[in-house]
Design goal:
single chain, about 80 residues, Pemi-like Protein 1, Chain: D, 3 helices, about 20% helix
């Protein structure tokens, strides 16, 4: 288990070392979840972050031509 020491700033900020950020895929703007545990705090990157970034990425591109020509029909 990786352990690190840091200093909390007057604004309540803590620097996460680069190796941990890379290993956990935490980049600029990544949302994290903090949880109180028995003897401290656990910090987790939110898993849905990557999915949230993709939402709407194809908006406005329309449907492929073969799907647009497909007649509406019920599934059998």
């Amino acid at each position: 288990m990786d352990k690190f020491e840091g200093v909390v700033t007057s604004k309540g900020q803590l620097v996460i070392p680069a190796k941990l950020r890379r290993d956990l895929r935490i980049g600029k703007g990544t949302r994290v979840r903090c949880q109180r545990i028995k003897r401290g705090i656990a910090i987790y990157p939110k898993q849905a972050e990557g999915i949230d970034r993709l939402c709407g990425i194809l908006a406005g591109l329309g449907l492929p031509p073969d799907i647009e020509r497909e007649p509406d029909r019920e599934l059998e």
